[in-house]
Write a structure and sequence with these properties.
This protein is α/β, with parallel strands linked by helices. Helix content is 31%, strand content 20%. The chain is built from four helices and six strands. It has a six-stranded mixed β-sheet, sandwiched between helices. α1 crosses α2 (54-67) and α3 (85-92) packs across α4. The longest helix is centred in the first third of the chain and has 16 residues, at 25-40. It starts with a strand and ends with a strand. The model has no long low-confidence stretch (mean pLDDT 95).
């Protein structure tokens, strides 16, 4: 399985209703830039899953629109920030597809990348906004993935 782990774009400042924080204009530009870089690699996607929070929903929609893809992003509660990487791995094992885009939040996305690639959790890489990291897994399990490439916004 090829996983493309994407943190949402820059969002509005924290407010009382965190799930309803929207992307900023800059956040949308960041996502479009990363989507263009991704499109240039001609990577196929079979599935796009995202947290149901507004900023990840918007990130998934902007990303897929920039790709010109007809795939419909699907909300997955397991991708909200309070969940842990091992719960996401359990969900990923149920999927029967090869190329999956996951749009989620920190700390979950950084933790998921670290768990998949066997990185030391004490010094794990922390994703920036709109950052995408690709991981190839012959088997979806802790330490069984290999990082393939990283894309970051250049705006």
């Amino acid at each position: 399985m090829n996983l493309y782990l994407l943190r949402h774009g820059e969002a509005e400042a924290r407010q009382y209703d965190d799930p309803q924080r929207a992307l900023t204009g800059r956040g949308k530009l960041e996502v479009r830039d990363v989507a263009r870089q991704f499109a240039a690699r001609k990577v196929p996607l079979d599935l796009c899953l995202h947290s149901p929070y507004l900023r990840t929903t918007q990130t998934a929609e902007v990303f897929m629109a920039e790709l010109g893809s007809s795939l419909r992003p699907l909300p997955q509660p397991v991708l909200t920030p309070e969940h842990r990487a091992f719960k996401v791995l359990d969900h990923l094992r149920t999927l029967q597809v090869e190329h999956v885009l996951l749009v989620t939040h920190n700390p979950l996305v950084s933790e998921l990348y670290a768990v998949l690639t066997g990185a030391d959790m004490q010094i794990m890489h922390v994703f920036g906004t709109s950052e995408l990291n690709a991981v190839h897994c012959d088997v979806v399990d802790a330490g069984c993935g290999a990082g393939q490439f990283r894309l970051q916004a250049r705006v």
